[in-house]
Design brief:
Rossmann fold; two-stranded antiparallel ribbon; eight-stranded mixed sheet; 10 strands; alpha/beta; globular; 2 domains
């Protein structure tokens, strides 16, 4: 599909700064909460996933997948849940392993390419609906694109539309982007919570984690090199990135798919904007907005352009 650049998103002056648009929503957005019901499902490896549900016996549902160190409590998940429930969608919001407020059982955890848990949740809940859609944010967006592209024949037949938002589709370059001084604040916050989880895992699985490396971690690349990669069976950070990045799978996508990314997103490298892939695909739509930051897209008052765009695509 052609690149769709006429998105008509034009925020107030201060929000034309990508960092401001990124930082404002998680700290200052006044976001109502939908009121989920939690259900725990078991995984084949004797772990668990906590799924938050808002079910009204609708004939269609949307699955929501959060970003790095997010959860169903993240303001963008709650906002999408409210907007989409109003137009007749049941809501199924996944908390990746270790992200629901309780440590998961196994040594392995969630990561950008861990589509096994995504597939399990989709397969568990989809059969009762006429159609389902997927929305993934940042890490969850990369995962959703990988899910529909890595083996199109195994995508659940009820999946009709997929939307990724602010997805770092080239993980290695995205990791390098986060190492830039301007992104120190974001990296520091990610590493704070990721580090706490590694300390907890070391308590549960002594001698299986090189915990002495933790004080040397200064970047997301370091964390993935010492922990994410080895814990999840990869040969370090670059092997993890190479196997998990969704960019390589976009040409094989056979499901209607949309990627919304702001050109001023501080998390994304130039390689994370798949213009060529969109132009060559019959199924993949790319929306490169001039402004928006990382999962920001503030518009006016307490309104955000992103939710209106999600409604527009899914309606």
């Amino acid at each position: 599909m052609p690149v769709i650049s006429d998105t008509k998103y034009f925020p107030p002056l201060v929000f034309r700064n990508g960092h401001f648009n990124t930082i404002y929503p998680p700290f200052f957005r006044k976001q109502e909460k939908l009121g989920f019901t939690r259900r725990r499902i078991e995984t084949p490896d004797e772990d668990f996933l906590d799924i938050d549900l808002f079910l009204k016996n609708n004939k269609k549902a949307v699955f929501l997948f959060h970003g790095l160190e997010g959860s169903s409590e993240s303001q963008y998940i709650q906002a999408a849940s409210i907007a989409l429930s109003k137009i007749g969608f049941d809501i199924i919001a996944i908390n990746f392993r270790g992200c629901s407020g309780e440590a998961n059982n196994q040594l392995i955890s969630y990561h950008s390419g861990f589509t096994q848990d995504m597939k399990l949740v989709i397969d568990t809940f989809s059969d009762k609906y006429d159609s389902v859609s997927l929305i993934g944010y940042s890490l969850g967006g990369n995962m959703a694109l990988k899910y529909v592209g890595e083996d199109p024949a195994k995508v659940h037949p009820k999946v009709q539309k997929v939307i990724a938002v602010s997805a770092p589709v080239h993980l290695s370059d995205g990791s390098k982007q986060l190492q830039k001084p301007m992104n120190y604040f974001y990296t520091k916050n990610f590493l704070k919570t990721l580090g706490k989880k590694i300390v907890e895992k070391n308590r549960k699985f002594p001698n299986q984690i090189d915990i002495e490396k933790l004080p040397t971690v200064r970047s997301i690349w370091d964390f993935d090199e010492f922990f994410t990669g080895p814990i999840n069976g990869f040969d370090g950070a670059e092997d993890y990135y190479a196997q998990s990045m969704s960019l390589q799978f976009i040409p094989d996508i056979k499901t209607e798919t949309h990627l919304i990314s702001a050109l001023d997103d501080p998390f994304l490298s130039t390689s994370c904007y798949p213009f060529a892939e969109a132009q060559q695909s019959k199924f993949f739509h790319f929306y490169p907005t001039k402004y928006g930051g990382h999962v920001g897209f503030y518009q006016k008052g307490n309104k955000y352009w992103l939710e209106s765009k999600l409604v527009d695509i899914l309606n």
